[in-house]
Write a structure and sequence with these properties.
The chain has 153 residues and is of the alpha/beta class. The protein has helices spanning 5-14, 66-73, 90-106, 138-149; strands at residues 19-23, 26-33, 36-42, 54-57, 77-80, 114-116, 120-124, 129-133. The chain is built from 4 helices and 8 strands.
Length: 153
């Protein structure tokens, strides 16, 4: 039996088993990996049917969500798991390794992932400078999209 790309995309985005909710108009599923909750936000349609592009979030998921929402509109999946006060420690890295393995092997996520998080821009004008949030996330979204999609070329 062969599957069309459209049916593969449908199968992959519907095979997550867990608590479902809404995240800014997108389906969000909380799955369990390594006995810890993992949030996967699904686009309406994946940008690729064979290997799904995705963004991996560290902390502060949902804060300033505009880049994530734009990436979801472009077919990226968004993934988050909490490892508070453990960033970079061996236990956190081992957990993220298990999340990565589960997503790439069981759910057909692409092997190359974009790292997401809070995006800040420091604008310097003249002598003084002040940190400012990035009002338009388009340049960041396009940078992520361009670089993650290179793996499919």
């Amino acid at each position: 039996m062969t599957c069309s790309p459209a049916s593969i995309a449908q199968t992959v985005t519907s095979n997550f088993q867990g608590k479902e909710s809404d995240w800014h108009g997108f389906k969000s599923v909380e799955i369990t990996v390594n006995d810890k909750p993992v949030t996967v936000v699904l686009p309406e349609k994946s940008a690729r049917a064979d290997k799904h592009p995705w963004v991996w979030h560290g902390e502060f998921f949902g804060h300033r969500p505009q880049p994530d929402i734009e990436l979801l509109k472009r077919g990226f999946h968004i993934v988050y798991t909490r490892v508070p006060d453990m960033l970079g420690c061996p236990e956190a890295v081992a957990h993220w390794d298990k999340v990565y393995a589960a997503l790439t092997s069981k759910h057909h996520f692409a092997p190359k992932v974009a790292l997401g998080g809070e995006i800040e821009l420091i604008a310097k004008s003249g002598i003084g400078h002040h940190p400012h949030g990035l009002e338009d996330s388009t340049p960041i979204v396009e940078f992520i999209e361009r670089n993650v999609m290179k793996q499919f070329s």
